[in-house]
Amino acid sequence: QKMIMEATAYSCNEGFIGGGNLTAMGQDLRVDPMAIAVDPSVIPLGTKLHVEGYGEAIASDTGGAIKGNIIDLHFSDVAQCINWGRRQVEVTILS
Question: Residue ranges per domain, the chain?
Fold first, then answer.
């Protein structure tokens, strides 16, 4: 299944702004940085996704601003988040 979604970016290295090093599912972002925050009513936690321009990752996090067809992609580096910005991407549900 494919869908177009709005994608933003976040980093566990944003200091007090970030949500910490662990996702809602307990994934340690310092060890495995590829994570996607989703609205679990749209994409269930644990779903494997492919995001255009980002790659494959697990929907392992949630966020207060992540509602509906918005996803938030984790990057290790804050500069990568700034470069990503906010964009429309094709999201493919793999499993």
Answer: 2-93
State the residue for tokens 């964009």. 87
The C-alpha angle with vertex 69 and arms to 74 and 91, in degrees rounded to 5, equals 65
DSSP 68: S
pTM tops 0.85: yes
CA 61 vs CA 43, 45: distances in Å: 11, 7
Say how many residues make up the chain: 95
Closest CA to 48 of 89, 94, 92: 94
Query: What CATH superfamily classification does 2-93 receive?
Result: RlpA-like domain (2.40.40.10)
pLDDT digits (tens, 9 = 90+) for 71-82: 999 999 999 999
